[in-house]
Every structure is written in structure tokens, then in C-alpha cells.
Design goal:
Low-confidence stretches: none
Radius of gyration: 23 Å
Strand content: under 5%
Structural class: mainly alpha
Strand order of the largest sheet: 1-2
Mean pLDDT: 83
Largest sheet: 2 strands, antiparallel
Distance between the termini: 81 Å
């Protein structure tokens, strides 16, 4: 069993190394048209594909966020990369909720932090988080391999895999719930702040009229 875990982690480490994030300096610092963007994403994130025919981001996906055929800056491409990583677990509305505040504050910000700074900061955590992830997966893989001991030997390989899938699915489910709860809290805070500002504005007008 110990050898199985080591072999599993070794293979997973190889896969993680092949899925490298796109570095900001690799993104063309020029205006890109839609076809250029989809081609760039397909080439840079090819290792993330499950099947060769998979599309990283389609024109339809991109059009949900960009309403014209021209993506005018590197910042838009960085935003699309966040969308790519979020799209498999979050709804379009949830993605907008967490990306819109970033784009509003850091797009075209020549005097301070930029969208590129945000992207670089987040992905600088990749190496450390990958090591933590490997340890956690190794632990779960070992636990799954110790289940169904009383079941027929010929069934155990499949049942061990089934146990591991269930454990990972539960982990994803809980984390997805947590992410959605955090987004809901952000939306509630934003709505409350907007209501407070509107109320303050009305009070100011009343005071001014007096």
C-alpha cells in the first residue's frame, strides 16, 4: 500500500508540473482579437485539457464577459485566465461578483497596483499550495485504500477508487459551499453599502433644502 501511495503521488506531481500557470510576461502586450485570444489560451493551457478536442475558452464563453470582438489589453487576458480557473465550479454571476470589484479598481491603474499585480500575487502561492495538496491527497488515497476490507478481493480495486472519488467529491462540495457563502456575504455587504450611500445622499439633499 505504501508503494501505491508513493507511485500515485509521483504521477500526480508530474501532472502538476505540466500544468504551469501563464506568466504575465508571456502575454502579448498588444491589442488582441477574439481568435488570437482563443488561440493563445489553447496553446498556453494545453496541459490542462482532459481531451485533445477540448476548448479552453470558447468565443461564447468570452462573450459573456466581453461584449465586443476586441480585447484591448493584457489586463483583459489576465481576467479571462481567472475566469478559466473559476468556470468549472462557479456560476457566471458568482464569477462576476468577485472579478468586477478587481477590474473596477485595478484596470488601467497607472498610479498604483494593477490587475497584473493581483494575478502575480495570487499565483505566487502555487508552489507552496501544491505541496500541501499533495500531502492531503496522499493521506486521502491511503485512507481510501484501507476501505472495504471485508468485500471480495476482485471488487476491492474498484471500491478503493470509488472511496477516493467520494472523498475528493465531498472535499470539493464543502469548499464550493464555502466559496458561494463568501461570495453571498460580499454581495450583501456591497448591497448594504450601496443602500447606505443612497440613504446618506437623500439625507444630505434634505438638509441642503432646509
Amino acid at each position: 500500500m505504501e508503494n501505491d501511495v508513493k507511485e500515485f503521488l509521483s504521477e500526480l506531481l508530474k501532472q502538476l508540473k505540466s500544468i504551469d500557470y501563464i506568466k504575465p510576461e508571456d502575454i502579448p502586450n498588444i491589442d488582441l482579437y477574439m481568435d488570437q485570444v482563443t488561440t493563445f489560451m489553447d496553446e498556453q493551457l494545453a496541459a490542462s485539457k482532459r481531451y485533445e478536442s477540448d476548448k479552453i475558452l470558447t468565443k461564447t464563453m468570452i462573450n459573456n464577459y466581453a461584449k465586443n470582438n476586441l480585447l484591448p489589453s493584457k489586463e483583459h487576458v489576465l481576467t479571462l485566465l481567472f475566469i478559466y480557473y473559476f468556470k468549472n465550479i462557479l456560476s457566471i454571476n458568482d464569477i462576476r461578483s468577485i472579478l468586477n470589484p478587481l477590474t473596477e479598481k485595478y484596470f488601467g491603474n497607472d498610479d498604483g497596483f494593477t490587475m497584473q499585480d493581483v494575478y502575480t500575487e495570487v499565483f505566487s502561492l502555487e508552489a507552496e499550495e501544491s505541496q500541501k495538496l499533495l500531502k492531503d491527497l496522499g493521506k486521502k488515497y491511503k485512507i481510501a485504500g484501507e476501505t472495504f476490507e471485508d468485500f471480495p478481493d476482485e471488487d476491492q480495486k474498484f471500491l478503493h477508487t470509488f472511496s477516493f472519488i467520494c472523498m475528493l467529491s465531498f472535499d470539493v462540495y464543502i469548499k464550493k459551499m464555502l466559496i458561494e457563502r463568501m461570495i453571498d456575504n460580499l454581495n450583501e455587504e456591497k448591497e448594504a453599502s450601496s443602500h447606505e450611500n443612497t440613504h446618506s445622499g437623500k439625507e444630505s439633499k434634505k438638509t441642503g433644502s432646509n
